[in-house]
Amino acid sequence: MDAQALLLRELQGSVDFFLQYSNLDATSRGYGLTVDATKDLRIASIAATGFTLSGWVIAAERGFIPRQQALDITRGTLRTLLHHVPHHRGFFAHFLNMTDAARWGKCEYSTIDTALCLNGVITAAAYFQDAEIQELAQALLERVDWNFLVFERDGVTLFRMAYNPDRGGDYVHGDPGFIAQWDMAAEQKMMYLQAAGHIDPDLARRLYHGFRRDTGKFEGQDVIINPGGNLFAYQFSEAWLDTARYLDPDGIDWFNNTRLATLADRAFCIEHAAEFKTYHENSWGISAGDSPWGYDVSGAPPALDTPKPNGTVSIYGAISSLPFVPDLALAMIDYLYREHPQTWGPYGFYDSYNLAVDPPWYSSALYGIDKGCSMLMVENYLSGLIWRTYTESPYLQNALKILGFYKRQ
Fold first, then answer.
1. What is the CATH number of the domain that holds 186?
2. What is the pLDDT along the chain (409 residues), one digit of tens a residue?
3. pTM for the whole thing?
4. How far from chain centre, in Å, is Cα 109?
5. How far apart are CA 159 and CA 228, in angstroms?
6. Which terminal residue of the chain, N or C, has fewer Cβ atoms less than 10 Å from its own Cβ?
7. Among residues 333, 322, 328, 294, which one has the least CA distance to residue 380?
């Protein structure tokens, strides 16, 4: 099978996954929510639901499902988000009950997971140009109280990472309340764009410049790094924001930064090929997702923390690298499809695999955010649809102008 056909099968499989693992029961309060992972079908992820909303755009554009069906699902999902999903000042609960949209346990109200969901809202509103969708999207976007999570530390303006009012709740150590802060470069760039149109413009710019730009080296070139060197943290904002066409106000090339980080990830795998059988030139990608030990978050240098390789390859992490290192990603996709059919299933590629354990381990699970990111990046590689729809939307154009992003010459 040639590369184009294989990528289209992966796209179709991704849409089929979201059709199968989203709540499409029109009588349910949880209509439109998407499962966090196939390991527990009771739990929905608000972030996965954002990727799914963008998936209906791809499905409609490519004719995988009728446009009217995609439109109806999107409308229903936005109604659920506005009227049924628990939130605190507009920030959604991270995990939800799939059937009734109730907050799952004492999970946190998460900034990044809310932002991932809202990226899907923005994309859907821009693509469908439907009056009800746009009205619902505007209500959801305007409801978020970004100022609630702003604070100053040592003269730097930052966002809190999450909020949890419950003692003993997720990420609560001691007194409940605010949780951590976005003081480092990671996956959160979308948050500054979403906040820009709803807070004071000077404050928006201070927030964007508030997080550190820690750097490391790869082959003599500077890379702005995240603490763990995780691939997903280079990919989540860039799955929607067209960094191939826009530079940030300081001239930072986030597209090339992700490209260099991806090359560094692959080089690290090749360097450790003798220790871990999974790693070689056509099998690389260290990120977050399924592993022989459960959910695992791993990374590669350059990073602030010292990465500890364990032989698990994140398949979706490599697929999500397609726009940045197309030849290398395509070679890996072809290799896996031919040499490791265990990595492929009814919804395209599974999450990950590890040949360095005994017996060799192949994931049979899928995570909504993982499948969502690779789906968006495959579409961006093939057509640029999600980048174009999201980035050229009036909402994003206004935000880019406020923050000072500009088009490449």
1. 1.50.10.140
2. 899 999 999 999 999 999 999 999 999 999 999 999 999 999 999 999 999 999 999 999 999 999 999 999 999 999 999 999 999 999 999 999 999 999 999 999 999 999 999 999 999 999 999 999 999 999 999 999 999 999 999 999 999 999 999 999 999 999 999 999 999 999 999 999 999 999 999 999 999 999 999 999 999 999 999 999 999 999 999 999 999 999 999 999 999 999 999 999 999 999 999 999 999 999 999 999 999 999 999 999 999 999 999 999 999 999 999 999 999 999 999 999 999 999 999 999 999 999 999 999 999 999 999 999 999 999 999 999 999 999 999 999 999 999 999 999 8
3. 0.98
4. 17
5. 20
6. C
7. 322
Which residues pair with residue 352 across a beta bridge?
A: 314
The conformational region for residue 90 under phi > 0 = left, psi -120 to 50 = alpha, else beta, is left
What domain count does the chain have? 1
Q: Where are the alpha helices (DSSP H) in 39-110?
A: 46-62, 67-83
Q: Rounded CA gap, 283 and 261, in Å?
A: 16
DSSP state, residue 103: B
Alpha-carbon span 25 to 29, nearest angstrom:
9
Domain hosting residue 164, numbered range: 3-407
Which amino acid is present at 103?
R
Give the CA count within 13 Å in the CB-facing half-sphere of 280: 9
